[in-house]
Amino acid sequence: MNPESVISQLRAAWEQEGAGARRYSSHRPPYRPIAGSEQDQTTPDGVANPLWEVVRWMPAEPDWHDGRLEPTYTYLAFDKDEAAKLDAVGAGRQGLATRYAWSIISPGDATWMAEQLAGRSVVEIGAGSGYWAWQLEQAGIDVAAYDPHPAAEDNTYCKAGPYTTVLRDDATAVKHHQDRALLMVWPPYGGEHARHALSLYEGDLLIYAGESWGGCTADDEFYELLDAEWDQVSVAPQHVTWWGIHCHLAAYKRKART
Asked: What is the pLDDT of residues 205-221, one digit of tens each?
């Protein structure tokens, strides 16, 4: 996938007659891209974030509750042939997630995380392609990234990368980095590694991107541990999630031990 080519095709699709018009629910506003909207975010000079640059040109659905735009399926906003062409070059959630990351990281997210970290380094467990680690490194943050199946080796969730160094190790790698903040992004549904990492972590700052109880990330025991031992202290205000995917990006501090 050439991101510049995908962006060019998406921009051309928006120029076609009828682009964005709804076919199934005319009472809702038309689809539109994040690019040029009040939600748009500029990638800083010298920083590469191809996932965001593609996502901002995807057709987006206004959320029912707050109107925030959430990227959605190409076939909803463009004609059948155009949508098929876009899907063929990877302009869809599945293609972008397996090439880059399963949770979108916007420029605002990177800035927010840097503020939460306040100079601290990070250990990421389940780093996959290393895309989020790469974004943080471009913001000047030191990241030690681990995954039991690094991207492009034998990881069915990641088909490209790695975008930075991702070492082969499981959740136990957190034991070697107790002084760092812990980062976990979209841990696999029903998987144990998020709970395992959190149970082994002795530090006081967790940054987590994923769904909550009953969602498509981690397992119930992870959320039980999160509720029992951690307090949410901040939520990334500019985080963008796929339509129908209830991903949030939040920082947690460990509760005082009694």
From this structure: 999 999 988 888 989 99
